[in-house]
Design a protein that fits this description.
Strand content: under 5%
Helix content: over 70%
Radius of gyration: 51 Å
Number of domains: 5
CATH architecture of the largest domain: Orthogonal Bundle
Number of helices: 27
Strand order of the largest sheet: 1-2
Oligomer: single chain
């Protein structure tokens, strides 16, 4: 016995953690296999919920992928389709690390899609499109890791993700459009695959195909909302021409998405599973910023579910101004963040006001409708009560008629007894009649015998007497019989009348019975209707109380928002005063004595500043006050820099003092805004015009004398830079084809081809611009020379010079970025930035050329067409850079299958250290970018090339 128990003793016993892990894996494998099975019906929510809870239990998706890859994904089409659906649900609702864990399995998803994509119809095509959507979703979250799997973020979080950077919003909108395109393609294929005779929404096969539309609708509603808000932000900061492609793409998606929601909402299958938000008939007009206030966010509503028991605290602290101060001075980033917060509060207050007004109007309309409905129901109830009373009276009449009919039934029974007696009397009468006939025959025989013999006289007499007596008796009996017969005839006639009357009464009784039953049913229906009306009336009263409660809560929220708005507005005015005071103090700073600015640039600031000052006289807004302070401080700095160029020192000092005076008047206007008194900016506007006039008298002769020669030099330099860039790109392409191979050669060819296309488009644009400029000069110079024309229009000429320099500089940056990428030492992001920069430069050149051009000019039309080609080529460079980046990343995927626990933990710690280093570098680079942009903004009016 001991030898038998020895192996059991030596066998290692599993710990509680190992047993728990084993049970967890078994349960997960069972739930996943039940959710992803071969039966053609929709996935059961409880099995998917178990798989989602499993990701929170282990804080990853390893168990899910381990179990899912064992399934026959490449053998059974139903299993592959349900796998895509379940994976989509887990990516949306699973643990936050699920998306990160699933990145390494993109190749598996792609293989499943390619395999089933060989089937051009049915589930094959749908599986391929669903796999494409899942890969796009993983790529989107990889590029935007701050978006959760369900894409639900608040407005503040969306602003934080975009970092208030137009470039980030521009890129993010393109990625959202790509995401939405895949969703719309998949939904169109799903609806197109339905067979209304066999696979409608109420069959198992139809529901199996339609079930994934629920998470797809959830994703699309969030993407639509973010796209609208981002496009409004872009249109508030960029010219509409640059965003033409964005608007066209959004409008196309809007039409398809609205049709998608309408088609889905009409299916019976979705009635109890999801509430699909309706989209408006007309898309938002992004050219009108006021429409953002009336925009309503589409909200998808699902049946309530028990969420997983997780501790996911969230923080939403506001900007800590005290901690951001350094020696009494607020950092620029903190100021920008605070200004951003103030703008957000202003937009939120405006939106809440619109929402409260809308809700109040709806509540008032609902109350009126409910009161009218209550009155109608009360009238209907009174009518029903009257009808019920009438029906009760009619019922009582019918009961009386029914009792009369019952009495008639008793009369019928008596008639039957009389009929039996009549039959008996009739039989007796027949018998007596026959006996009477017989006796008459005997009498006739006797009379005959008497006439034949006289001997029989005596006997005949005796017989005759006997006969007479018998005859008298018979006559008497016949008389009685006749009397009885008459009585019986009258009784029979009466009986027939009674029977006829009885039949009529029976028919009336039957009709009364049927009418009584109908009335009883009608009474019962009326009572039920009355109970239903009373219940509905009670519900309406409860709804009325709820609406009044919500209205009261909304009013309280409005009061809180008003108080918050007043506090924020006061802080905004204080900050605006501080900014202008700081600018006034900096006028006397010796460090600004070397700063210079052209008088033309100073004059160009007057118009925008005057418009803001006039706007403040009629309306108060956070944005206007903040912009007024910043523009005034910028004008003061530029005025000081312009005064430094004066050859007369005393004149320069007077100009500096005039800058201080203008700043003090600006502070007076801000104080009047703070106290909400009458706002008059007339004196301030006079001071800035005087300051601009003082600056305009400086260095005019030198500028106008040199402007004619300078424009030709800069245009020639621009042409030379573009030609050199084209030649250099062709040389790099030849060198790469000779030295590289594989993925590197493919990437280099794509990048250089796209850059070549862009440079060719820019070359054509420059040629068209030169032709248009020549046409403008020939039409405007008259008998004077071209240099004299440039001198007379020196401000326009300076704009052309600045645009030409920017194009030449952009071409050099693009060439440098492409060279670095091809040589292996550069980044594709730098190439994207360079291409977008040269797009902005060419846009500046087009705008500068368009100012004096004739609208009907053929050269102008050609220039516009060339500008569109440059925009398309720039988009091609961006798209090529993105695809090449993805190609490089896919080739560099980390293989973790062979890693041990120690090596995996080591690589994880190294990756975390690298992430922290990159985040630190990113913060430093953002500060550097902000400083460079401020410096570029200060030097924007200088036509000289900036020093490195």
């Amino acid at each position: 016995m001991s030898s038998l128990s020895l192996p059991r003793v030596l066998q290692p016993r599993k710990t509680s953690l190992e047993l728990e892990r084993e049970n967890f894996e078994k349960f997960q494998a069972s739930s996943i296999s039940k959710a992803i099975n071969q039966v053609e019906n929709p996935v059961k929510e409880k099995h998917v919920r178990s798989a989602i809870l499993g990701t929170f239990h282990e804080k990853s998706a390893e168990t899910f992928w381990t179990c899912a890859l064992r399934l026959p994904l490449q053998e059974n089409r139903i299993v592959a389709w349900k796998f895509c659906h379940v994976l989509h649900k887990i990516l949306r609702e699973g643990h936050p690390l699920v998306i990160q864990n699933s990145q390494r399995y993109k190749r598996k998803i792609e293989d499943v899609g390619k395999l089933w994509g060989l089937l051009k119809e049915g589930y094959g095509k749908l599986i391929q499109l669903y796999c494409n959507l899942l890969m796009v979703k993983l790529d989107f979250h990889r590029r935007n890791p701050r978006f959760p799997g369900n894409l639900v973020v608040s407005k503040e979080e969306l602003d934080s993700i975009g970092e208030n950077d137009i470039n980030n919003y521009f890129q993010m909108s393109v990625e959202m459009f790509d995401y939405m395109d895949e969703i719309l393609v998949l939904q169109a294929a799903i609806f197109g695959s339905l067979d209304m005779s066999r696979s409608n929404s109420m069959t198992s096969s139809g529901q199996c195909i339609l079930a994934p539309l629920i998470p797809i609708i959830q994703d699309s509603s969030q993407l639509y909302d973010y796209s609208v808000r981002i496009l409004f932000k872009l249109h508030a900061s960029l010219p509409p021409d640059i965003l033409t492609g964005h608007r066209q793409r959004f409008l196309k998606q809007f039409v398809e998405l609205r049709q998608f929601y309408m088609s889905a909402s009409m299916l019976q299958y979705f009635k109890t599973l999801i509430q699909i938000p309706p989209l408006p008939e007309n898309p938002p007009n992004f050219l009108i910023q006021a429409e953002l206030c009336s925009y309503v966010t589409p909200v998808v509503i699902l049946p309530p579910e028990d969420p997983p028991d997780l501790d996911t605290p969230s923080t939403g602290d506001l900007v800590d101004l005290g901690a951001a101060q350094n020696g009494g001075t607020i950092l620029p980033d903190v100021i920008a963040e605070r200004d951003n917060l103030i703008d957000q509060l202003q937009h939120e207050i405006t939106r809440q006001r619109c929402e409260i007004q809308r809700i109040t109007a709806e509540h008032q309309n609902s109350i009126l409708r409910f009161n009218e409905r209550i009155s109608n129901l009360e009238i209907d109830l009174a009518k029903k009560d009257s009808e019920l009373a009438q029906e009760k009276l009619l019922k009582e009449d019918l009961l009386i008629q029914t009792e009369a009919a019952a009495r008639c039934v008793d009369t019928e029974k008596k008639a039957k007894v009389l009929d039996e007696k009549f039959q008996k009397l009739k039989e007796v009468y027949t018998q007596l009649r026959e006996e009477h006939i017989q006796l008459l025959r005997q009498k006739a025989g006797v009379d005959k015998a008497l006439r034949g013999s006289d001997k029989m006289t005596k006997f005949a007499r005796a017989a005759n007497n006997l006969i007479l007596s018998i005859k008298a008796d018979v006559d008497k009996q016949l008389t009685n019989v006749h009397i009885l017969e008459q009585e019986e005839a009258s009784k029979k006639t009466r009986l027939e009348e009674v029977l006829e009357e009885l039949a009529n009464l029976q028919a009336s009784a039957d009709a009364a019975s049927e009418q009584n039953q109908a009335l009883a049913s009608k009474v019962e229906w009326v009572e039920k209707e009355k109970a239903h009306v009373e219940s509905e009336l009670q519900d309406l009263l409860v709804q009325k109380e709820e609406i009044e409660s919500r209205l009261k809560t909304t009013e309280e929220q409005l009061n809180n928002f008003k108080q918050l708005y007043d506090e924020a507005f006061e802080q905004c005015c204080d900050e605006a005063e501080r900014i202008v005071k700081h600018a006034i103090e900096e006028v006397d700073n010796p460090a600004l004595s070397s700063a210079t600015c052209t008088s033309d640039y100073l004059t160009g600031l007057v118009e925008a500043l005057e418009e803001i000052a006039v706007s403040l006289e009629t309306k108060l807004k956070f944005q206007l006050i903040t912009e007024f302070a910043h523009q005034t401080s910028m004008f003061i700095f530029c005025g000081k820099a312009t005064s430094n160029t004066a050859s007369d020192i005393e004149y320069g000092e007077r100009m500096a003092e005039h800058c201080k005076t203008a700043g003090n008047h600006c502070i007076s206007v801000i104080k009047s805004c703070k106290t909400k008194d009458a706002r008059d900016s007339t004196i301030f506007r006079e001071k800035i015009h005087e300051l601009a006039a003082m600056g305009g008298s400086l260095n005019v002769r030198v500028t106008t004398e040199q402007i004619g020669d300078l424009i030709e030099d800069e245009l020639a330099t621009m042409d030379k830079a573009i030609e050199e860039a084209v030649k250099r790109i062709e040389e790099m392409l030849k060198q790469s084809r000779a030295a590289d191979s594989g993925i590197k050669l493919e990437v280099n060819e794509k990048i250089l081809d796209s850059c070549t296309t862009l440079m060719q488009a820019i070359r054509i644009l420059v040629q068209k611009s030169r032709l248009l400029q020549a046409e403008i000069v020939s039409q405007g110079k008259g008998t004077a020379s071209a240099k004299e024309f440039y001198k007379r229009n020196h401000q326009w000429t300076e704009g052309l010079i600045s645009a030409a320099k920017a194009v030449a500089m952009g071409a050099k940056h693009l060439l440098t970025a492409a060279d670095q990428v091809v040589s292996g030492g550069g980044q594709l992001e730098r190439l994207v930035v360079a291409s977008q920069g040269i797009l902005a430069s060419t846009a500046q050149l087009v705008v500068a050329s368009r100012v004096k051009a004739d609208r009907n000019s053929k050269n102008m039309s050609a220039l516009s067409a060339a500008s569109k080609n440059v925009t398309t080529a720039t988009a091609g460079v961006v798209a090529t850079a993105k695809s090449c980046s993805q190609l490089i990343e896919e080739s560099d995927d980390l293989d973790v299958c062979s890693l041990t626990l120690y090596h995996s933990k080591k690589l994880e710690m190294e990756s975390q250290v690298r992430v922290l280093e990159l985040e630190s570098s990113l913060d430093k680079e953002r500060l550097r970018l902000a400083a460079l942009r401020r410096h570029h903004y200060q030097l924007a009016g200088d036509i000289d090339e900036p020093k490195s």
